[in-house]
Amino acid sequence: MPDTMIGQSPIRIDGRAKVTGAARYPSDVVVPNPAWAFLVTSAIALGRITAIEEAEARAVPGVLEILTHRNMRGTVRDAGFFAAGGYAAETIRPLEDDRIWHDGQIVAMVLADSFEAAREAAFRLRVDYAAVTPAAGFGSASATTEPAAKARQGHEDPQVGDADAAFAAAPVKIEADYATPTQHHNPIELFTTTALWEGGKLVIHEPSQYVTGIRHGVATQLGLDPQQVRVESHYVGGAFGSKGSLTQRTALVAIAARRLGRPVKLVPTRDQGFTIATYRAETRQHVKLAADRDGKLQALVHEGTEVTSRPDPYKVAGTQTTARMYDCPNVRTKVTLLHADRNTPGFMRSPPEVPYMFALESAVDELAVALKLDPIELRRRNDSKKEPIKGLPWSSRGLMRCYEAGAEAFGWSRRNPEPRSMREGDWLIGWGCASTIYPTHIGAATARVTLTPDGQARVQTAAHDIGTGAYTVIAQAAAEMLGLPLEKVQVALGDSDLPPAPVAGGSNTTASVCNVVAEACGQIRARLARAAVEDGPLKGRDPASLKLVSGELRAADGTAEALPEAMSRAANGAIEAYAEYLPQGMPKESMRKLYSGKQALGGGIAEGPLAMAAFGAEFVEVRVHARTAEVRVPRVLGAFAAGRIVNPRTARSQLMGGLIWGIGSALHEETEIDHGRARYVNDNILEYLIPVNADAPKVEVMLLEETDTGVNPLGIKGLGELGNVGTNAAIANAVFHATGRRARELPIRIESLL
Ligand code: MOS
Question: Where is the signal peptide (predicted)?
């Protein structure tokens, strides 16, 4: 076995369980004698329920109960908005009163002995409404706007210098509007919930990125002690932000189970997932960029307006990133929220950067054209040692190294910069590039590691594997620190009864959890070392100098004691360590927040003392048909610098998936909205377009070595959300290069290019 496990590429330790069907996803959990829930959702977007006619529904054989606001009012307490110190992804409380806030809001939950009976009765429930014309979003007369700085406590629009004066004075400038659409999650595993009461304890099986958050949120809603709530989510069949915070369905299922005195299982339909969970908000952005004749940036203005619901100030606010991306002395940004009669948006993979870096990286390309300068060279001239807003030094910034390695591998030097200059038959060829960045987030985390006398280790932490490979990289960290082969390490995740770990969001899990596991393993090593220096071959050595390597406790000169002997010297049986990791610079209350299931990620690029981020350069080739304007993407290449890579295989897989998602972001994905009714139209995976195999090209991922211990002791930066940032801009830039047409609105469709 290798001396080090970190940096190796073992296959996923849960891979076999997944491909053989042995992995039990929360939706698969079988409970005894369940009642089945089926949701009835609102047919209008704004107004009131005037009548509910239940008789026909209740007459369906097997129907047990129908929950509506008439028998539920006052039952579920407010869990608060997650961004305001609460737990919920949205504060709209269904079944609380007769008010309708958005299309597809839950208006009833039907419970029956079978799924079929519940569904039948749901279809027979008659709900009458008094409807008011809703605001669907941009262009709706009754939508209202509010500056994010007013709506969200703590939000500041980054700015420095005098961007407007510098823009006016600069010799070369561009100014443009960009638009990004609503996008919806379509996880294979639906937004299911199963709840059962075991004595006084509520057990919830639900695919989740934050079991501790759900535990505390539901406890708040139901007035329970959090110890009475257990949330399990050992595997997640697709999440990407959609399962990151509490939605309102969970408490309803828990209450139904309590009222019926039996387990309840809810399997919402796919279209219901569009309105009972969150989505990526659409944006409209305005960008002004100015430079001197050498391409040195003089001014950046970036303004964005984003759709949210009426009550909740969800913000995308990617200007936090775009303001800091390049060296620029004069920056002004502003984020405005547009309140409409919609469900509350939320996280979707790289929530701020996907829409906002599209605009910035398109604008940088437009400026390069105006300057007649290579777009990579333009970025080089504006590379920075410090982010420009507060002057925080980058802990490391691999951006230009990524461009160099990526350009070389892609063959960028063979690009003729002239638009429409590269062609093969009827296909116009375009090469484009764009930067990616994802701030390095990290959170307070806890873990328990147990080493048993037979040399087996068990890691327990309430972190999550949302398909990313977390089980594997956490096992690698423990194996490395304990000097054990990977197969001797078991990892338990996804259970709120385990020591708390942060939300699987903001790409923090690998960094946060590997560091706390390393800490716990360090405690075990120290205990073994203290005993080993008392007697035996390592007697008299400095305990701090002893390392656990390849199944033994070893001194620098090779003198060693085998692990079983070291274990029996230190303990009668197992050795267990419980560790708490509070990342450097994070306030102490972050640990208490973790224990109460609050959102408390730190790090990033705006707080300091260091600006911490992973970077990358993405290159794409597009082919645009000269007559039909069909766009194809034959190849994509991404070069990334993301700190220490724990497992290059799973890292590559994350980045590859991100790049392919980026193709969808550029060319396919959009939730179509019926503006008159504020209703999602293509709320299914047939009409909600995503890249299929035929759209997924040759994807090349390059992982650059990067040592950065400023981010955390293990030098790990997250990369789960790095790959799909900037890809949309790289494709738009390539489309411009192929056609001479600038597409500033996503997705780019044939009609955008005719
Ligand atoms: Mo990710 S959108 O931070 O779950």
Answer: none
Task: Check if 244 has its Cβ closer than 6 Å to any atom of ligand 1.
Answer: yes
How many structural domains compose the chain?
A: 3
* pLDDT band of 4, cuts 50, 70, 90: confident
Cβ 295 under 6 angstroms from ligand 1? no
Average pLDDT value for residue range 259-288: 98
| Same domain (yes/no): 366, 296 | yes
Residue in 349, 508, 509, 654 to alter for ligand 1 test, most ligand atoms within 8 A of Cβ: 349
Ligand 1 atom nearest the C-alpha of 506 is 3
Same domain assignment for residues 516 and 636: no
Q: What is the whole-number distance in angstroms between the Cα of residue 469 and the centre of ligand 1?
A: 15
Ligand 1 pocket member 240 (CB < 6 A)? yes
Q: For 531-558, what is the mean pLDDT?
A: 97
If you ran DSSP here, which 8-state letter would residue 155 be given?
Answer: -
- Dihedral (CA of 392, 356, 640, 718) sign: positive
Closest CA to 95 of 253, 218, 215, 320: 253
Percent of the chain with pLDDT over 90: 98
Which residues are tagged catalytic?
721
What is the residue-averaged pLDDT of the chain? 97
Residues 441, 334: Cα–Cα separation, whole Å = 23
Same domain as 174, residue 49: no
Cβ–ligand 1 contact at 349 (below 6 Å):
yes
Q: Is 745 helix (H, G, I), strand (E, B) or coil?
A: strand
CB of residue 348 inside a 6 A radius of ligand 1: yes
Centre a 10 Å sphere on the Cβ of residue 454 and count the other Cβ atoms it contains.
10
- Could you tell me which residues come within 8 angstroms of residue 394 by beta carbon, excluding any fewer than 6 positions away? 384, 385, 386, 387, 610, 611, 612, 613
> Distance, CA 504 to ligand 1 centroid (Å)?
7
Distance 102 CA to ligand 1 centre (A): 24
Top mutation candidate among 184, 240, 242, 279 for ligand 1, by most atoms within 8 Å of CB: 240
Number of Cβ atoms within 10 Å of the Cβ of 659 = 28
Same domain, 63 and 203: yes
Same domain, 382 and 340: yes
351 lines ligand 1 (CB under 6 A): yes
CA 617–ligand 1 middle distance (angstroms): 21
Q: What is the dihedral of CA 335, 340, 344, 347, to 10 degrees?
A: -40
Interface ipTM: 0.97
Domain boundary among 543, 570, 603: 603
Q: Do 624 and 700 belong to one domain?
A: yes
Collect all residues with Cβ–Cβ distance below 8 Å to 2 and sequence separation of at least 6: 8
Q: How far is the CA of 505 from the centre of ligand 1 (A)?
A: 4
Residue 436 contacts residue 350 (beta carbons within 8 Å): no
Residue 305: give its domain's CATH number. 3.30.365.10
Mean pLDDT within 246-265:
98
Are the beta carbons of 104 and 96 closer than 8 angstroms?
Answer: no
